[in-house]
Specification:
The complex is a heterotrimer. By secondary structure, chain B is an alpha/beta fold. Chain B has helices at residues 22-30, 51-68, 86-103, and strands spanning 10-13, 35-40, 76-80, 116-120. Chain B has a four-stranded parallel sheet with strand order 1-4-2-3, sandwiched between helices. Chain C has two domains: 2-118, 3-Layer(aba) Sandwich (Rossmann fold); 136-203, no CATH class. Chain C has helices at residues 9-15, 30-33, 39-56, 73-76, 95-104, 148-151, 172-175, 182-193, and strands spanning 2-6, 21-27, 61-67, 88-91, 110-112, 114-124, 127-132. The radius of gyration of chain C is 22 Å and the shape is elongated. Classes of the chains: A alpha/beta, B alpha/beta, C alpha/beta.
Amino acid sequence: MKETITPSRLEKILAAGHWAVTSECGPPRDGRPEIIEKKADLIGDYVDAINVTDNQTAVVRQCSLAACIRIKLKGLEPVLQMVTRDRNRIALQSDLLGAASYGIHNVLCLTGDHQRFGDHASSTNVFDMDSTRLIQTVKMMRDDGRLLSGHEMHEGRPQMFIGAAENPFADPFEIRVMRLAKKVKAGAQFIQTQCIYNMPKFKLWMKLLRDEGLHEKVAILAGLTPMKNVGMAKYMKNRVPGIDVPDDIIKRLAGVPKEKQADEGIQICLEQIEELKQEEGIRGFHVMAIEWEEKVPEIVERAGLYPRPSVN
Amino acid sequence: MRLSYPTNIRIIKVPCTGRVAIIHLLKAFEKGADGVFVAGCLEGDCHYQSGNLRAKKRVAYARRLLASIGVDPERLAMYNLSAGMGPRFAEIAREMTAKIRELGPFLQPSGRTAAPQATAA
Amino acid sequence: MIMAKAKPLEEILSYLEGFQRILVLGCNGCVAVCEAGGLKEAEVLASALRIQNMQAGDRRDIQELSLTRQCDKEYLAELKDKMDNYDAVVSLACGAGVQFMAEMYTEKPIFPGVDTCFIGVTEEQGVWTERCQACGQCILAETGGICPIMRCAKRMMNGPCGGSEKGKCEISVLVGRDVDCGWHLIFERLKKLGQIGRFAEPALDKDWTLSRDGGPRLIIREDVRP
C-alpha cells in the first residue's frame, strides 16, 4: 500500500490499489434537510465517497458545504465540490477552513458552469481564480500551512485529498493532456472525468496522458452517466457543451422499445465499466446518475464493485 | 408625359437616395410635413451600386425612431422605381397622399392639410 | 476606443419629463467613431425629441451641440456661457464624459443618452467588438497577444475550461451567436509563435487592486504636470 498524506478514505482506497467508486448527489433547491440524507442513504454503502455538487449548472441549491457536513455527520465520506464562479479567494479559503473543521477530507476544484446557464443569468460572476489556482491554493493550505495572504496556520490545516475534473472531449483536444499536467503540477491527486460516451477518443486521451507519465502521478476516475432514454442522449449530444455522444449510442438506445431504454442505458454503462477496467491508468469510477441515484447500487453491484472494501 | 399628381407634394431632389440621411427624413417632419416618402431606383439598379439599399436601411431605422416617439411609422415610406416610370411615380404620390390623409395631420390641433413630402432621386 | 450604444428614446424621454430647455450634447471622440454620440447622432436625437415635442403639443426648447471631447475640461468649459439657457442636458458621451459634465456643471441635471459598452475595435462599418477590460496590469505578453481576462467568459488564467467546443465558448448557445473560445485562440497563437511552453506553468493570482476592485483608479505623471 502506498503512503497516504490525508485521512481521506478515498485516498486510502486508491493507495491500497482498489478500484475507487464515487458518485454524486445534487442538493435540493430548498432548505429541506432530508433530501440529501435520503440520497446519501441510498448510495452510501455502495461508494467510497459522495460528491456534493456546488450549485451545478449555476442553479441555486442548498450549499455544498452544508450538505457535505450532513453526509459527514452520518458517518459517510463527502467530496466537497467547489466552483470559483461564486466566491472570491477570501470566501473559498474560508469555506475550506470550515470544511476542515468538520473533518471533510476531499475537495473537487472546479471553475464552474457559466452563470448564464442557470436560474440567475443576470448575476455577476467572481472568477477571482480558476480551478487550477484553487488546486494550488488547497495544496498550499494543506502542505505549507499558509493562506494565500501568507498567514501561517500552526494548527488546523485542512487535510484535503485534492481532486479536479477534466473533460477529454472538449476542444482543442491537443491541449487537454497539457491542461491535466498543469493541474497535476498544481497539486491534483485525483481526477474525475467528464462523462464518457466516446470510448475511442477517451482511450486516445488516456494513451497521451500515459505517454506523459501522468497516470502514475494522479488517479483517474472515469466519469459515467447512464442514459435514461434516447431523449436524454440526444439532449446531451446537442445541448450540453463539452459532451460527446457518438451516434451509435443514440442508435442503440433508439433501437429498443421506450420502456426498455433505461435498462439499455444501464447495460451500456456496465459495458463501459468492463472495458475501462482493462485500460491502464484507470483507478476507479465516478458514477453520476443524474437525478437517478437509486440506480447507483445496481450499477455498482452488477459491475462487480460491491461490496466496497474497508480501509482504515 | 403630362401626368398629374397631388400638388401638395414637395419634391427634394438628391443625386442618389444613398445621400438621404436620417436627419433629412426627421427634418421634413420637423418642418411640417405630415408624411415623407423616399423614391429610390429599383433595387439592383443603383448607379452607385448600393445607395438605395442604404437608404432602405435608414428608412427602416427612422421608422422605428418615429414609432418610439409616438409617430405612426406609416408616415414614412420608401418606394423603388426607375426614372422611366413616370406613371408609377404619380400613382405612388396619390397612394401616399391618400394614406396620409387617412392618418390625418401629423400635428393634431393645427388642422393643417396633409402634405406629404417626397425625396426623389 | 470606447464603444457605446444609443439608449432607447423612451428611456431618454422619461428622464426629460418636466424639463423645458434641453441641450442634447454630442461628443466628437470615441462615441462619434462608433456612431452613437457624435454631432450626427446629437442632431438626430434632438430632431426626434422636437418632433415628439411638437406632437405632444409642448413648447420645449430642444437644441443640440457637440464638443470635441467631453473628457477634457477645456472643451467642457466652452459651454460656460451657454448653460444658463438650459434646464437639463442629455450627454451622448461615454460614462466618463457624462460624469465630467456633471462635475463641472453641478447645478444642472446631466442625463446619459448612450449606454457605454466596452473598449473595443471596429471590425467593419457597423460592427464593433470588445478587446480590453482595462484590468490595469497587461498580461498580453504571456498569452500570445490575446487577452484571457476579456476573451474568456470565465476570465480563466489557465484555460480553456471543459466547455470549449470546436473553438467556441460554452456561452455561445446562451447568447445566440458564436463566441470564440479565448483560450483556443491563445493556444493556436502560442503554437504559431512557438511559445507553447508558456502554457505549462500554472498562472499566479491576478492582482485585482489594479482593476476596479482597488477603487477608482488614477494615474499621476509628475514629468508632464505643469
